[in-house]
Specification:
- This protein has 200 residues and is of the alpha/beta class.
- The chain has one domain: 3-Layer(aba) Sandwich (Rossmann fold), CATH 3.40.50.880.
- Helix content is 26%, strand content 31%.
- The chain has 6 helices and 13 strands.
- The strands form 3 sheets. The protein has an 8-stranded mixed β-sheet with strand order 2-1-3-4-13-12-11-8. It has a 3-stranded mixed β-sheet with strand order 5-6-10. It has a two-stranded antiparallel ribbon with strand order 7-9.
- β12 and β13 form a beta hairpin.
- The longest helix has 13 residues.
- It is globular, with a radius of gyration of 15 Å.
- The termini are close together.
- The relative contact order is 0.18.
- The model has no long low-confidence stretch (mean pLDDT 94).
Length: 200
Amino acid sequence: MIGVVDYGIGNVASVVNMFRKNGVDCLLVNTPKEIQETDKLILPGVGAFDSAMSKLMELNFVSSIKDFAASGKPLLGICLGAQLLMRSSEEGMLSGLGVIEGTCRHFGNIQPLRVPHMNWSEVTFTIQHPLFTFPESDPRFYFTHSYYLDCTYEADIAGTTSYSKKFTCATRHNNVFGVQFHPEKSHRFGARLFMNFAAL
């Protein structure tokens, strides 16, 4: 069973609908106990880093998600959820979950760069893993974000794309994965990533 963390931050319905449309059962998880009882877990998110972390703390989800990551079961963070997996973010003051070493950095004011980055972009996956296996070379995904993932260790970088400069958009540390793009808005490419996750 795939659980989608429902903490009031992010369009969880779109994630659930894409799985169900492709014949995969999943459910929203609303308590720490439900998080631990799932086989695979997705942490979605949109909005501000500190607001999301505050909500996770308010619901007592932080330790449950960390325990889930330590259990060896697959955990996938998407968009802001991927940023929350990191140690910190330049966007806020609160600490992240810290299950992947690194921080989230702002694109800055590089002209003529427009922030947020809102676009379809090709992604080059830099590791061989079933989650990131696609029939197409350099599949395309939809992005909308102002901060990007900056991993401490190169071994945790799983995919890159470019927006004025090359940046990390996918991470993997053991059983924990993060993608900066929105699979639920990325049509067949996003559906394939979700099906790959279901098959782990």
